[in-house]
Amino acid sequence: MTAPLRIPFPVVDEVSRHCVQEEEPETVLIEAHLPGELDAGRLRKAFLEALRRHPRVLMREAPGPWYRRRYEWELTDEPDVEAVSFPPPGPGSLQGARSRAMAVAPPLTASPPIRLEVVTAPGDTESGAGGGAGGGADGRAGIVTGTALLLTLNHTALDGPAGLRILATTAEIYGGRDNSAAAPPVRPSGTPRADAPDTPSPWASPARVARGAPDPPPGPRRGNGLLHTELPLPHRPKGSPYTVNDQLMVATALTLAHWNREHGARVRPLRITMPVDDRPRDATMPIGNGTRLVEVPFSPEELDTSDLPALLHRTALRTRALKALPRPQLGHGAVLLTAPWGPVTARGALTRALRRAAAPWMSTTLLSNIGRIPYPLDFGEGAGCAHAVWFSAPARMPRGLTFATASTAGRLHLAVRWSRALLGHDDGAHLRDLFAHHLHSTEATP
């Protein structure tokens, strides 16, 4: 019998593995809503075939002695566990699936490190309570019908764009229809500048999100709280030098400045982490953690302004310059830290110690914008195309708060996710409403 193929952990995977915490698991949740229903047997077969088509999905962490120099992924031909489940339908079924995604990560020791929960005719209201329901800040609340697909990824192994690619392949196999990615939108022309004007110093200690009123933990695993909401896509004049992503970035900065003012926090610069993904979206897309992280700074002075067009223009210059800079995914320090100079146990202890020491300089929050969902996610006759897709990124301390956005069918789908050690459900709802308000303020009148 041939031994399974092993692949050393890339830098991002290894750093994430060193910092695993059971109390606040690092999961990515993708939630897609379909108007119709799915056949359980067909979906299981389609999902399994999608896993087989994409290398580095059917894998598990290989066992090894404490003194090994590398963590390794062990590729498998078949899943070790059933990855697709169908919770009993009824009130609370959707909320229950969301709560599991926030509290329990798919194990790395069983292939694949992802799970798909299929909630049929959930019946939950989109404005529900608790730490995980959604709600329309613009009043678009109602009963969830059809089918909700909840794909939970262990972020040590996979990221959001990789999960979307797997879902698109599943839809294509299940429905027999083309689910190729649409062409990316046209961005403003021009050569990115090497620097942006008046960029705040990257060495200043950034603001932290002010503490709210955390709810009591629901169990031994604190996990994250989550709110979904649906908003109109922000308008911008045709030919604007800034993008919707820049509007979202400004809205995030204004939201946090507003929140911290309300809570009497010390005024400091903000730094917002922004994932950038340059991978192709077709079937050749490399699966794994493929995004690189850049940090967008904002000074207190530029956020205390009524000249939003100028702030949007500066932000556009700043984000384009940062995207154009060649940089390893987590920076040069992470590359040195994950070099195999010693056992993984020793390097892991050092990584955790450095993470704690660097906590005051970690960015204030993370804004992850996938933009327009590039795939139709068309599951064919009977199930239909996804009309709403949310995804959310982990919100571990010391950041404790993330915003994630995607657009589907001309609507913006926002997920606000927070650490239960920092914020409570009412805090999350207030931050959601602040975000909607400030995003609307970035619009130019049509």
Write a structural description.
This protein is of the alpha+beta class and 446 residues long. The chain has one domain. It has helices spanning 11-18, 40-53, 93-103, 160-175, 244-262, 300-303, 308-324, 332-337, 344-357, 425-441; strands spanning 6-8, 27-34, 59-61, 72-75, 84-85, 114-120, 147-154, 224-232, 270-276, 292-298, 365-372, 388-392, 401-408, 411-419. The strands form 3 sheets. It has a 6-stranded mixed β-sheet with strand order 8-14-13-11-9-10, sandwiched between helices. A 5-stranded mixed β-sheet has the order 5-6-7-2-12, with helices on both faces. α2 (40-53) packs across α4 and α5 (244-262) crosses α10 (425-441).
Q: Sheet bearing the most strands, described?
A: 6 strands, mixed
Number of helical segments with 4 or more residues:
10
Residue-averaged pLDDT, rounded? 88
Helix content: 25-40%
The number of distinct structural domains comes to 1
Strand order of the largest sheet: 8-14-13-11-9-10
Note the beta-strand portion.
15-25%
Contiguous low-pLDDT stretches (5 residues minimum) are: 126-142, 190-195
Structural class: alpha+beta
C-alpha end-to-end distance: 67 Å
CA-based gyration radius? 21 Å
- Run of helices and strands: EHEHEEEHEEHEHEEHHHHEEEEH
Described by the principal axes of the CA atoms, the overall outline is globular
Task: Describe, in short, the structure shown.
The protein is α+β, with helices and mostly antiparallel strands and 446 residues long. Helices cover 28% and strands 20% of the residues.
Secondary structure layout plus pairing:
Blueprint: E1 6-8, H1 11-18, E2 27-34, H2 40-53, E3 59-61, E4 72-75, E5 84-85, H3 93-103, E6 114-120, E7 147-154, H4 160-175, E8 224-232, H5 244-262, E9 270-276, E10 292-298, H6 300-303, H7 308-324, H8 332-337, H9 344-357, E11 365-372, E12 388-392, E13 401-408, E14 411-419, H10 425-441
Parallel strand pairs: 5-6, 9-11, 11-13
Antiparallel strand pairs: 1-4, 2-7, 2-12, 3-4, 6-7, 8-14, 9-10, 13-14
